[in-house]
Write a structure and sequence with these properties.
This protein is α+β, with helices and mostly antiparallel strands. Helix content is 43%, strand content 10%. A four-stranded antiparallel β-sheet has the order 1-2-4-3, with helices on both faces. It is globular and about 55 Å long. Bound molecules: flavin mononucleotide.
Amino acid sequence: MSADATRAGLDAALDRRFGDAGGLAEAAPADGVPGLAALARHRVIRGYAPREVPGALLRLVCAAALSSPTKSDLQQRDLVLVTDPATRARLVELCGGDHWMPSAPAWIVACGNHRRQRQLHEWRGHPFANDHLDAFFNASVDAAIALAWAVAAAEAAGLGCCPVSQVRNHPAEVAALLGLPGHVFAVAGLTIGWPANEGTLSSRLPLAATLHHDRFDDADARAHVDAYDGRRHALQPYRRQRDVARFGEVEPYVWSEEKARHYAEPQRTGFGAHVRAIGFSLD
Ligand SMILES: Cc1cc2nc3c(=O)[nH]c(=O)nc-3n(C[C@H](O)[C@H](O)[C@H](O)COP(=O)(O)O)c2cc1C
């Protein structure tokens, strides 16, 4: 799909994305169309051209990302911009070394940072009276919002990017590599570079399933997922089936089957222990 910033382009992107958003683009004020179209056209890019991204442009993307809203103005998130080749190579290794990862000339690692808040209490001599799950949660949310802003900023600059939760596969090793102290943790990485391909506009569950009006209602969840499975399979069939040795081959191999297989395997079972080890109380 071309970078069509027109109302028709917005309409086409939303239609492909959700299947039930037809006509919504009509609601966009004329000067809102390009920005909304850019968001609607989002797709991750896994594969980058062998072309350097200027350091100043990377800093600009980070500055835009750190302009994101932050809970109570607490600013409990930081970014680690990784361009050093040796550090990048080790990060790729710790993230599972997916074949496309080495092509990324830079990574931005979005971190929750609750260390600074604790320092404020120390420096100001006031007790910290909120040592519970919310502290970890707030920093995680702030970091995730900054990550989302970084995606939008990168795409606005013509760059491609892909978030990487695999930074949490080996959280202690990633913390050591990036020098993360206690109460600072990687939420996700973001590979970033000039796109080597156009990516795919990936379809989502219909708005009927995920946009609730006034009151949450998932009475038709199964029917929506079944319909989405069919629509998505027609638009974006999976190239490979996961864990065929355990689950066999099925046709059609649809989204709900893929996601149920995905989480049939334990993942990151050590993350909670890491989070506690760096000082958080999760009660
Ligand atoms: C928090 C987060 C973590 C992600 N982690 C990974 C990852 O570790 N590896 C990967 O290839 N893609 C990762 N992704 C990308 C998603 O797979 C991708 O967003 C999703 O398939 C939908 O595709 P789209 O963003 O192009 O619409 C991640 C996305 C998010 C938001």
